From TrEMBL:
Residues 25-87 form the MIP18 family-like domain. The keyword Nucleotide-binding applies. Belongs to the Mrp/NBP35 ATP-binding proteins family. This is Iron-sulfur cluster carrier protein. One of its GO terms (molecular function) is ATP binding. Homodimer.
Length: 384
């Protein structure tokens, strides 16, 4: 082969490989939220001219752990980045393995060094944190949490949710999350379902046994969910609190003073009177009460709207908290009693979504869309 031809081929090889490194740099690891190139997952790109107008491209990939649950997704994106190269016909060949222990240890150390501690309590953090509370159980707090998180994700927000109800965890079932979090040398990757990054004690072996944690151990469980999980920097974090004003609510307030409390009640006085207490906890801890949601407000049957649990509970809670706290605590939403909410939730899909993961085209989804939109308005703007 003439020297000039060899030089031209070498130049084209260098151009192709450099361009592919750049294209792959835009592929993000879905769990870590960083480029697969920056994470060291792509360790080699080698283009070979087939002398027929095509090039074979060998890409060596090292994932974080063997059997990485998102291996196929990452591989598909790399394959697409190579095969869609615009100025030459490239045939991708991926060799997928996993990082050795030393490389993985260095990566985890680098990620932990960036975070060091609770990532949601840093100055300038963009994440809006909504702690969903109730005065008593049985008012649908977890269902509201799941559907609100799913709504934020469907609207395009990077969304995370923590099941902070250590004793009565429900989010894994409501989201159909059956996998355990991936463990990267002591750092956990949240499980993603319906676009929401999830963490719950219910995802771990033995979680079906009764849990009798209190005090420091309960605080430590929350610390681990916040600091030992790689969340990235989500737009929204939903916390499904335990009912009442116990240890976990206090722990959340201490760990996340920037959290905004949303109180869930049902219409009857026996629920709304107790719900007020969960809002009044903000007099003792540094949390702003953002508003009230009245759940199970009515049931539509044969063209008639039935108020099975009475009415006015959400308004009573809103009025009482506004008067007691000295700032407006609005009634944010009234949600219906609908058997589909239970049926879809028990089937592992938040009821606000259709089977394809899009927001339903009905009044129920519209109510959650309006709720999410209202919550994302900063409190200062609401006050003004």
């Amino acid at each position: 082969m003439p020297a000039a031809t060899q030089t031209d081929e070498k130049d084209e090889k260098t151009t192709i490989e450099s361009a592919l490194w750049e294209r792959c740099a835009h592929i993000m690891d879905p769990e870590l939220g960083r480029s697969v190139v920056d994470l060291g997952m792509i360790v080699g790109i080698d283009a070979t001219d087939n002398q027929d107008g095509t090039w074979d491209v060998a890409v060596t990939v090292e994932l974080t752990v063997p059997g990485c649950p998102l291996s196929d997704q990452i591989s598909a994106q790399i394959h697409a980045a190579v095969s869609s190269y615009p100025t030459a016909v490239l045939i991708p060949h991926l060799e997928v393995g996993s990082m050795d222990e030393g490389k993985l240890k260095d990566l985890v150390a680098d990620l932990k060094a960036q975070r060091r501690e609770n990532p949601f309590n840093k100055p300038g953090i963009k994440t809006r944190i909504f702690a969903i509370a109730s005065g008593k159980g049985g008012v649908g707090k977890s269902s509201v949490s799941a559907n609100l998180a799913a709504t934020f994700a469907a609207l395009g927000y990077d969304t995370a949710a923590i099941d902070a109800d250590i004793y009565g965890f429900s989010l894994p079932r409501l989201f159909g999350a059956h996998a355990q979090p991936t463990n990267l040398n002591g750092m956990l990757m949240p499980v993603t379902r319906w676009g929401v990054k999830l963490m719950s004690i219910g995802m771990f072996a033995g979680a079906d046994r009764a849990i009798l944690w209190r005090g420091p151990r309960l605080q430590r469980s929350l610390d681990q969910f916040l600091a030992d999980v790689w969340w990235g920097e989500p737009d929204v974090l939903i916390l499904d609190l335990a009912p009442g004003t116990g240890d976990m609510t206090i722990s959340v307030a201490q760990a996340l003073p920037n959290a905004e409390l949303v109180v869930v009640t049902t219409p009857q006085p026996s629920a709304s009177d107790v719900a007020v207490r969960s809002g009044l906890v903000s007099l003792q801890v540094p949390m702003h009460v953002r508003g009230v949601i009245e759940n199970m407000s009515w049931y539509d049957h044969a063209g008639e709207r039935l108020r099975i649990f009475g009415e006015g509970g959400g308004g009573r809670v809103s009025t009482h908290l506004t008067r007691a706290l000295g700032y407006e605590v609005p009634l944010l939403a009234q949600l219906p009693l609908d058997p589909r909410i239970r049926e879809d939730g028990e089937a592992g899909r938040p009821a606000v979504l259709d089977a394809d993961g899009w927001l339903r085209d009905d009044g129920f989804a519209d109510a959650f869309r309006d709720l999410a939109t209202a919550l994302m308005v900063p409190p200062r703007a609401m006050a003004s």
